[in-house]
Design goal:
- This protein is an all-alpha fold.
- Helix content is 71%, strand content 0%.
- The protein has one helix and no strands.
- It has one helix at 6-20.
Length: 21
């Protein structure tokens, strides 16, 4: 896990949002 892609961060944000709801 050296290169962090922006898409991965976006997916994480979406997952977190769905979990909160």
């Amino acid at each position: 896990m050296g290169t962090s892609h922006p898409a991965f961060l976006v997916l994480g944000c979406l997952l977190t949002g769905l979990s909160l709801i």
